[in-house]
Every structure is written in C-alpha cells, then in structure tokens.
Please model this.
Amino acid sequence: MTSSSRSTPLRASPLAFTHEERLARARQIADRFARHFGTRHRATAIYGSLARDQDGPYSDIEMFVIVEGEGIDRPYEWSAGPWKAEVDVYSADEFFRQAAALDEFWPVTHGAFVHWLPLYDPEGLLERGRALALTHTPEEFHQLIIETIIGDLYEIIGKTRNALALRQFSLLPAYAVDAAHFGACLLGLHHRRVYTGSTTVWAESLTLPDPPEGYAPLVEKVLSGKLHPPAAVGRAVNLFWEGVEAWAQQNSLPLIHDLEALLSDG
Model:
C-alpha cells in the first residue's frame, strides 16, 4: 500500500462549518436520539449560540432531550473529530427541577432554559420549563443578591487586598475578572435578567440601568485585556466595591449582620 492510499486519521480538532451545516447536523442528532428512546421521547430542543443564530464557524452543538422516567440527568458529550456536540438527557421532573433552581449564577446559567429552539415538543414541556425559570419572587431575588455580595464579592475583595498587601500581583487579573463576573450576576439578579449567552454577559450587563459605581470601568478594563499595572487593577476592583456598598444601601440591601440575630432566626 502506498502512502497516498492510506486514509488520513481523524483529528479531534474543530473545523469551520456554516450555520446551516451545523443546524442540519443538530437535526440529525435529534433524529438519532428520538429513534433511540422511541416512545419514551417527549421533547428535544437546541440551546446556546446555534439556537440564537449567533454561532461562529467553530461553535459546538448544544441540545437537550426530555424522556419519560424520573430522576434522569444524563449528559452525552462527544467529539466526532471536526465538530463537537453535547446532549443533556432529562426526565421531565429533573428538567423542571433544574429550570426552577435559583442561585447567584442564574442570570448566566439559565439562558438554556429560556432561549432555545424547539425541534419537538408536543406537550409544551419546554415552555413550562421557561416559565419555571422565570417565576421567582422579589423576596427570593432580594435575599440572593445579599448572599451574592457577602458570599462572593466580599471574598473577592479580600483576596484582592491580600494580593496587593502581599505583593502577589500575578493573582490580580483573575480577581478582577471574578469581580466583573459577579458584578454581572448581581445586575442580572437585580433586574431579573437572564443573559442570552456566556459570551455576551458583560456586553448585555452594561446596557442595564442602575449599575454600581465603578462596574462599567472594571468591565471595560477586563474586556480590554489591560489588567496592569497592579495598582491600577487593584484600584478598579476597590472602586467597584465602594460602588457596591453604596448601591446596596440605596437598594435596602443590608451587608452587616449580627451573629446572635442570625442564630435566633435559625
């Protein structure tokens, strides 16, 4: 056998495809799962950039499939060489449970339950999941915002100040990114906004009204990639924190609590 007659081995490396090619492949995957589950198959949808018609030439395919049963949460993720796909298989109860979950990352993670492209859904399960994802009380958001500020942002500010005090300057860029990320989550929770995708979180958050003072300059610094010199990075993070403190007071979000009062509530 000559070298020219040998088949070239597949490489697990992303190659460029058009939106139409990627969508056609997603439909083929959906058909395969439908055949696999047969009468247990209840719904299928595409989520992510492909569902929003915002995919790039190297984007992957993200889908979920709902099947009969209980407590099912099985991810299928694979590379076929030049493209990659992820299909999350749920039973309806598990799909609804995850859709209804509310935590500090809700504005970022729940886009999959809100922004999807249905391929098969005769029972309206997808719309029920969307409704659950968006149905939370003002009191729930209020308490979660407080927990996000104290449990996440406060800790990042402490780490930033430690890095400055101990001259661990290489840590500052990561802390600045973390602070900007939780700032976007904070704004999303405040406005009950589920962002459309992970790559557009900061851009979308900057369009929301009533941000803490210092948030926009911090995000602009992160997006520019100019996370230096250390003093400038630390100053941007600290100014954002000062803005969060003032913003919390304006929105009746108490950040200081008494341990005895907390214990008496428990």
